Amino acid sequence: MPDDFDALHKRMSLADPAVYLHVDDDTLTRLLDESKRPHVSVRRRLFIGVSIVGVFAIGAVAAPAAADVLRAFFAQTGTFGNAEMSEEDSSEWIDLLAPDAREYIASVYPDYLPVPSGIDAQQFRLTVADSIIATARTTSEQEGGGGVLQQRTGLVRSFEQTAYGEWIRTWLVADKAGDLVARDAAAAVMQKATTWPAFVATDGGGIIARMQTFADAAHDGDRDGMQAAAQYNLVDGPGGWDGVDRDSWITEHTP
Amino acid sequence: MTALTEMFVDETSAFDDAIRPLMKPLLAYFARRITPAEDAADCLSETLVVLWRRRNSLPDNDDDVRRWAYGIAKGVLSNMRRGRMRHRALADRLRAEVVASLVPPADHYIADALSQLNAKDRELVTLIVWDGFGVAEAGAVVGLKPDAARSRYSRARARLRETLR
């Protein structure tokens, strides 16, 4: 019915949120030019930070718990997010290429976050920290050698995300082994994960809703749904995603 | 001008010519899909950086450039939604302009109807109606073959009509 379609098309066009979007051409030109430059400003900020916080650095490794209250690490820039702009929240920007970034990242591991039995908590912290730093180094190399910053909340989120993945794996392994106690325990953590603060703080739309879908699958003993969770959350390796594409399950079952 | 400098200028010029016409459409693409919409400025900034980094893959013709650029934009959008986006100060001014020119949609029923579609269908429909892609082209951006895109688009349209009735 072409008339119906034309009417729908017209109505949708009028509902376009960007229908009146207007930006200055000079702004776009500047942005285009800037995109080709290495991001030296971040590195300059690092040098300023080092000169200010250096006196705290010696004690930093011995007292990582002080990270919340003191600028105890070189990795801390002293620059905080502005929640009114695009940042995740008002947490501090952290220099991921700083010499003590590994220690700083390990220090922000949140107390509320459980890891499955069999995983050494200290090793988990360092493995996640190493992964974050490796990614930052790759990003820096790809962008021509500039510094890489991430907000503290983003680091906590990485811990949450990695732990979440391990709980999905735990569920799958327990399910396969017929260990319903372990499976239910993992399902309970997955339900709780929908309230983990960094997940909630960085949800730009639909992430918690999707996690709830996976938590429901865990609770219902839906192995297919849990394999979709493993695929979506990149839970590879032994006991993880079986390699079967379940994109359609995710599309159909999540908002 | 040395041969090397000349090569860089040529490369820059080709990149600018190909990408500049896509900047406003890409900004609108992000503004339609992100909350808050002003984060579209950071997404555009990040997209430009990635496009420049991958300039060796810049396709030859405009249609392919557009598909290529939106494919990268889709990845940037995904990163933003997962909280992995880094803020770039150079996008500050653009962010302010986006805030100033965006208006809330007048027809909330459309937004509600769209929200009832699954994610892939919604993306397909909005790429076609708002971003101006053809059905097959939009399908390529979201990873669908042309026949599958046509069939899904037809179903999604029927569902929208039904919801809005």
Concise account of the structure shown:
Chain A has 255 residues and is mainly alpha-helical.
Description of the molecule:
The complex is a heterodimer of chains A (255) and B (165). Chain A is mainly alpha-helical and 255 residues long. Chain A has one domain (38-253). Helix content of chain A is 57%, strand content 5%. Chain A is built from 12 helices and 3 strands; from the N terminus they run ααααββααβαααααα. Chain A has helices at residues 2-14, 25-34, 40-53, 57-60, 101-107, 121-142, 152-177, 180-193, 197-201, 207-220, 223-232, 247-253, and strands spanning 76-80, 92-95, 149-151. Chain A has a 3-stranded antiparallel β-sheet with strand order 1-2-3. Chain A is flat and about 65 Å long. Chain B has 165 residues and is an all-alpha fold. Chain B folds into 2 domains: 1-103, no CATH class; 105-165, Winged helix-like DNA-binding domain superfamily/Winged helix DNA-binding domain (Arc Repressor Mutant, subunit A, Orthogonal Bundle), CATH 1.10.10. Chain B has 8 helices and no strands. Chain B has helices spanning 3-33, 40-53, 62-81, 92-101, 108-115, 119-129, 135-142, 146-164. In chain B, helix 1 crosses helix 3 (62-81) and helix 2 (40-53) packs across helix 3. The longest helix of chain B has 31 residues, at 3-33. Chain B is globular. The termini of chain B are far apart. Classes of the chains: A mainly alpha (255), B mainly alpha (165). The interface between A and B is large, with 54 and 64 residues.
